[in-house]
Amino acid sequence: MTTTKKTHKVTLIPGDGIGPEVTNAVVRILEATGVKFDWESYAAGAEAFEKHGEYVPKELYESIERNKLALKGPVTTPVGGGFTSINVALRKKFELYVNFRPIKNLPGLETRYPGVDLIIVRENTEGEYVGLEHEVVPGVMTSLKVITEKGSTRIAQWAFDYARKHKRKKVHAIHKANIMKLSDGLFLKCARNIAKGFPEITYGEHIIDNTCMQLVTNPYQYDTLLLPNLYGDIVSDLCAAFVGGLGLVPGANLGTDAAIFEAVHGSAPDIAGKDIANPTALLQSAILMLHHIDEAAAADRLQTALERVYTEKKTLTRDVHGTAGTSAFADAVIAAMAVTA
C-alpha cells in the first residue's frame, strides 16, 4: 500500500443520472489505494437549482478555488434550450484551457481497432464554445467562433511539452484553414511556431474532415492530435469508439491553477439507480488525477488492477459483455489492488 501521509482535498461533483453511482464506486476504489482524501461534495445542474436556485452554487465554485482539484461525474446538459452546460461553465470559470483525453485499449476487451494509443489535446475555452450567439431577426441566428493567438499558442505549447515529456513521436494540428482562413489559420500559425522548438517531434497538419476519414481508415498513423475546441470535442468522441466507447475513456480539464477530472460520457438517466453502470471512464479519470497529485505509485497500482479485472473478464459490466453490477465491479478492482500491492 502507499505510504503517503498527505491528505488531498478534492471537490467532488457526483452529477446526476448514473453519476452518483459511478462516483461512489470510484471514491470507494480511490480510498482503497491508501491515499488519503478529504472530499467536499456538491451538486450541480438541475439538482443544484432545485436546492439552491443556482445551477452551479457559489459554494461549489469556492470549493474548487480552495482545493484546485475536482473529480466530476456526468451532469445532464439540455439540448436546444435550458441551462448552459455545467462543463463549459466550469472550464471558463477556472480557465481550464486543456482538455486531455488519452485513448488506449484495455487488455482483454476486443474491439475493431486493437492496439490504439492516441493522445487528444483539445483547446478548451475558445472556438464556438464561447457561446456568443445572437438572433439577428426571427429565423436568422449568428454564432461567433473566437480563436486567439494566446489561446492557440498555449494549447500548442502544452501539447508539444506533453509529447516531449512522454516521448511521443508526432503531433498533428487539425484545422479547417482552407475555409476558415483567419481563425483556423491563426491556430495553425501558432502551432507551427511552437513546433519549431521541438525538432525531435514530427509535426503535421490535416484538415478536420479528412482527419475523420483517416482515423476510421487507419488510426495508427496518428500519435498526438492538437485541435481547436469544437473539432476536439467531435474527434475525441470518435476516437473513443476505437477502444470501446465513452464509458471507458478518461477526461481531464487542466489549467494553470486548477484541474477537473471527469467522465466524458452522458448521465444515462434510463439506467440510473439500477447498479449496472460502468464506472471505468471516471475511474480512469481518477487515475489521471492520481498522477496529477504526484501519487504515481497508487496510480500505477490502480491501473494494473483495472487491467487485471478486464483481462480476467469475470466481473465486467453489461456494456462490455459482462454480467456484474457497478458495485461488484468496484469490489473486483479493490480485490485486484490487494493482489498487486
Describe this structure in words.
With 341 residues, the protein is α/β, with parallel strands linked by helices. The protein has two domains: 1-97 and 248-341, 3-Layer(aba) Sandwich (Isopropylmalate Dehydrogenase); 112-243, Isopropylmalate Dehydrogenase, CATH 3.40.718.10. Helices cover 40% and strands 19% of the residues. It has eleven helices and twelve strands. A ten-stranded mixed sheet has the order 2-1-3-12-11-4-5-10-8-9, with helices on both faces. A two-stranded antiparallel sheet has the order 6-7. Strand 1, helix 1 and strand 2 form a beta-alpha-beta unit. Helix 1 packs parallel to helix 11 (326-340).
Key traits:
341 residues; alpha/beta; Isopropylmalate Dehydrogenase; 2 domains; 10-stranded mixed beta sheet; two-stranded antiparallel sheet; 11 helices; globular; IsoPropMal-DH-like_dom; transit peptide; NAD
How is the secondary structure organized here?
Elements: E1 7-13, H1 19-32, E2 36-41, H2 46-52, H3 58-67, E3 69-72, H4 86-93, E4 98-104, E5 117-123, E6 133-137, E7 140-143, H5 149-165, E8 170-175, H6 183-195, E9 202-207, H7 208-217, E10 224-227, H8 229-240, E11 250-254, E12 259-263, H9 280-292, H10 296-312, H11 326-340
Parallel strand pairs: 1-2, 1-3, 3-12, 5-10, 8-9, 8-10
Antiparallel strand pairs: 4-5, 4-11, 6-7, 11-12
Helix pairs in contact: 1-9, 1-11, 5-6, 7-8, 9-10, 10-11
The total of beta strands comes to 12
CATH topology of the largest domain: Isopropylmalate Dehydrogenase
CATH class assignment of the largest domain: Alpha Beta
Secondary structure class reads alpha/beta
General shape: globular
Task: Please provide the ordered H/E string of secondary-structure elements.
Answer: EHEHHEHEEEEHEHEHEHEEHHH
How would a crystallographer describe the biggest sheet?
10 strands, mixed
**Overall helicity:** 25-40%
- Tally of DSSP helical segments: 11
Please tell me the CATH architecture of the largest domain by its name.
3-Layer(aba) Sandwich
| Overall tally of structural domains | 2
Distance between the termini: 6 Å
Strand content: 15-25%
CATH superfamily of the largest domain: Isopropylmalate Dehydrogenase
